[in-house]
Amino acid sequence: MINKLVKKIQQTQAPIVVGLDPMLSYVPEHILKKSYAEFGETLEGAADAVWQFNKEIIDHTYDLIPAVKPQIAMYEQFGIPGLAAFEKTVAYCQQKDLVVIGDVKRGDIGSTSAAYATGHLGKVQVGSKSYAPFHEDFITVNPYLGTDGISPFIEVCKQEKKGLFILVKTSNPSSGEFQDRLIDGRPLYEWVGEQVAAWGQEHMGDSYSYIGAVVGATYPEMGKVLRRLMPKSFLLVPGYGAQGGQGKDLVSYFNEDGLGAIVNSSRGIIAAYKQEKYQQFGPERFGEASRVAVEAMIADIAGALKR
Questions:
Q1: For 113-120, what is the mean pLDDT?
Q2: Is pLDDT of 307 > 60?
Q3: CA–CA gap between residue 54 and residue 303 (Å, rounded)
Q4: Are strands 16-20 and 261-265 parallel, antiparallel or unpaired?
Q5: pLDDT tens, residue by residue, 28-60
Q6: How many C-beta neighbours within 10 Å does residue 68 have?
Q7: pLDDT value of position 234
Q8: In the structure, what pLDDT confidence band is assigned to residue 244 with cuts at 50, 70 and 90?
């Protein structure tokens, strides 16, 4: 799957991923009214509104981008109907030939990690039949429990030719409370980055590993160090736009081949119609606003990489 991601990035010339992290406050009123009219003000109604919102954005952007990243918590908050909307979103994106990165941040040990890996990346056996429950192409994983928490995920990835993005240096303000702590004179995120590179050697694609890393756009100097420590790992870079990251901050996240990183924007794209610069579209044309926001992001990053 890493080979497909690289190919899609080369085809679109857009090293970006759209974060499908819908809150009900992002969903325009006309969609909410329609869903509530059909399902009532219920979890089913909320989940349907989220699905309809996602579909509109996907339909307006899929030809511009290589990948999407649905954050599962935004769906889990609506219970079982929300999870059904998550799976429907994943399936629809794959029908549009998009690579799907499930932002699930799982991490445990032994059989529990194996079950998470099976549910999101693999197949579960039920009698004589097997099923792929959520069937994402990549997922995000928390490495805090160490190698025995990661190995079950890597084993499923090898079987299914799928991949991981492992949390290394996250974009949130308090990430440094643990991730920046010094161990033998070096910050923890460097030790984790080196281990990600080592895990990645076990599962290589043509030019990059199936085992990538999450490195926030909000810490560009740290990103530069981690790029050097993980030369064959793709970097998933959150924190662009709404969290303050800009194209000019991201040059060091890429390798000399112009590859090696994919930059995420979530509410900056899916809620673009709420921004003053896209207000001419209004809620009725929110999908068009998202498309223009994607085009602007592509141009920003491309311009930065050409400098």
A1: 96
A2: no
A3: 28
A4: parallel
A5: 999 999 999 999 999 999 999 999 999 999 999
A6: 29
A7: 95
A8: low
Give the pLDDT confidence score for residue 206 in this predicted structure: 87
Alpha carbon distances (Å) from 301 to 8, 45, 61, 240: 16, 37, 17, 10
Q: Is 91 helix (H, G, I), strand (E, B) or coil?
A: helix
Mind listing the domains of the chain with CATH numbers? 2-306 (3.20.20.70)
Backbone dihedral angles phi then psi of residue 162, each to the nearest 5 degrees: -115, -175
What CA–CA distance (Å, rounded) separates 10 from 173? 32
101 membership: H or E segment, kind and range? strand 99-106
Per-residue confidence (pLDDT) for residue 242, from 0 to 100? 62
Query: What distance in Å separates the CA atoms of residue 290 and residue 293, rounded to the nearest whole number?
Result: 5
Reduced to 3 states (helix: H, G, I; strand: E, B; else coil), residue 163 is: strand
The pLDDT value given to residue 249:
81
pLDDT at 243 over 60: no
3-class SS of residue 66: coil
* pTM assigned to the model: 0.94
Assigned token pair, 208: 């990059």
Which amino acids are annotated catalytic?
Answer: 105
- Report the chain's terminal Cα–Cα distance, integer Å: 30
Distance CA 200, CA 205 (A): 10
Helix (H) or strand (E) holding 55: helix 43-61
